Amino acid sequence: MNPLLSALRAAVGAANVLTEGDLSAYELDWRRRSHGKALAVVRPGTTEEVAAVVRACAAAGTPIVPQGGNTGMVVGSTPDASGREVVLSLTRMNRIRSVDPDNLTLTVDAGCVLQNVQQAAEDAGLFFPLSLAAEGSCTIGGNLATNAGGTQVVRYGNARELCLGLEVVTAQGEVWQGLSGLRKDNTGYDLRDLFIGSEGTLGVITGATLKLHPQPAATLTAWAAVPSMDAALTLLGLAHRHLGAGLTGFEVMGRFALSLVPRHFPQQRVPFLQESAYGVLLENSDQESEPHARALFEKLLEAAMEDGCVTDAVVAENISQARALWHIRESIPLAQAQEGLNIKHDISIPVSRIPAFCAETDALLQREIAGVRLVNFGHLGDGNLHYNVQAPEGGDMQAFLRDQEERVNALVFEQVRRFDGSISAEHGIGTLKAAKLPHHKSPVALGMMRALKKALDPQGILNPGRVLPLAD
């Protein structure tokens, strides 16, 4: 009998230590690029049980892979192939702990599904704005561990800006309670921000106090046809001036990216698909009234058409139409997956430089790789593009991925460096980009990161090989 497995069963109950059967839900990453092998999948139900699991693994020197909904894009929450790593699944920890309407906060377990967090806020007459395509299955702990972004960052910020406090189990199995929900607390280093975005490499997030907002009086959605990325940038500037803080979403989608949606989901109709190089999805959240919101939207679109940066536009008349427009945007990744294997990039560029980046990088890739297809879409409002590269039509997609992925990544990431951008905007580093990080972070930054990792996790048992490569 393995003494560690015995200790884990004593900590969480034998039924919650999985070692046999089909464990692919925990061992296979969302993009199905990596299928690891866990020593065990452990499913604690409380923070105290998480702490006991970490203490047992620390005593045995066994690495731990914290996991939420396993919807990550960079292979950061699934085990490697060694069979030595324990997957620490937090999905049983799914309680809404408390709602404080006066403090505009909500405290939850880390395993709460994002959609349930949104619903709990709505039930209290309030609003939690983090919104992702995977919100029906991703968990708030994973969102915070990767500092997730989504479609409302332009107004509300990333997950980091929506969190006021954390509860964290350290690598030694101690519990840090930082759930006060204070908006002002200058008593030393900001430990909360240290753990957010660290991808489970510094501690295990078990609970969070989240920042809520008043529900908008009205939320309207519009779809605009724009002739170029430069025009989309002009429209963004007009939207900021006309809508101010009411601008809560600004998504740009290239024609080829949009064309994949009706190709694979023919029941969906994309507005102005053949008439414009890009589509822009705008959201206006108004604190006054729907007529006020609609009047502002109409003035914005009138000004944009006079400017020439918009050639046509439609404003959703009801919630059903708005959802249909957003569904097009959310269907692009699914349609791209149906189209076949592809090379994904989650990059950020200074917003003002995005048109030049796209023009140069599009031309570079098409010159270097004949027939390559570019699936470009994302959150222009905050400078985040999902700049994906699809194999030439009719080609061997497996061979394309095998032969061209490193070359494509090198070309795109060098362009990102030239334009003062980041190779990861909202998906994290995981294992896919860990080896590349030293080429895109300064030695000073990497030295501080290594020092923090060594100080907080001296045994190196928390998510080893993620973010920082093992050689470091």
UniProtKB/TrEMBL annotation:
Gene3D superfamilies recorded: 3.30.465.10, 3.30.70.2190, 3.30.70.2740, Uridine Diphospho-n-acetylenolpyruvylglucosamine Reductase, domain 2, Vanillyl-alcohol Oxidase, Chain A, domain 4
Highest taxon listed in the record's lineage: Bacteria
Lineage, uppermost ranks: Bacteria, Pseudomonadati, Pseudomonadota, Betaproteobacteria, Burkholderiales
PROSITE patterns from the UniProt entry: FAD_PCMH
Domain FAD-binding PCMH-type: from-to ranges: 34-215
Record-given protein name: FAD-binding oxidoreductase
Family, per entry: Belongs to the FAD-binding oxidoreductase/transferase type 4 family.
Keyword Cell membrane: no
Record key words, sorted: FAD, Flavoprotein
